[in-house]
């Protein structure tokens, strides 16, 4: 019993210390002139789907809930956001060259068709981010249409 109390105390101390040393999540940027939605490349339902299901990891406009500031969850959130933004950042869309835009749009369709995005751990907590089959089809059609428009530029 005494060992259990010591181990519990050490775990509690580690969690408290982690609050002070864990890295903070990336800061949001107020202005995003290169943003895909702000530039009118996604509108209406598609824009709303992107905001609800993608932007928390794939933009500079992340909605951080309270628990994203509490270690060890904050470490996971920070990792996922940084990795997501590195892979695809809708807020920096206009900075991408034509080839990268086309590749990213193709990947959007692929990850939706293969049910890889949004991540299951994300939709477990954010129920509103779940995409129905119709939502996925709308996003896939949008990405294919934007690919055609991008190729025509």
UniProtKB/TrEMBL annotation:
Pfam families: Haem_bd. Residues 1-21 form the signal peptide. Transmembrane segments: none annotated. Residues 12-147 form the Haem-binding domain. InterPro entries: Haem-bd. Keywords: Signal. This is Cytochrome C. It comes from Flavilitoribacter nigricans (strain ATCC 23147 / DSM 23189 / NBRC 102662 / NCIMB 1420 / SS-2).
């Amino acid at each position: 019993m005494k060992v259990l109390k010591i181990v519990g105390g050490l775990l509690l101390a580690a969690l408290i210390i982690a609050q002070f040393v864990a890295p903070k999540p990336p800061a949001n940027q107020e202005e995003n002139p290169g943003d895909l939605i702000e530039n009118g490349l996604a509108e209406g339902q598609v824009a709303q789907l992107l905001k609800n299901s993608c932007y928390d990891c794939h933009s500079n406009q992340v909605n951080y809930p309270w628990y994203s500031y509490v270690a060890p969850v904050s470490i996971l959130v920070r990792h996922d956001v940084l990795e997501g933004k590195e892979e695809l950042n809708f807020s920096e869309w206009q900075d991408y060259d034509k080839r990268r835009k086309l590749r990213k749009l193709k990947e959007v369709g692929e990850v939706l068709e293969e049910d890889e995005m949004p991540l299951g751990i994300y939709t477990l907590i954010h129920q509103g981010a779940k995409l129905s089959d119709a939502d996925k089809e709308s996003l896939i059609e949008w990405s294919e249409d934007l690919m055609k428009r991008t190729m025509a530029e």
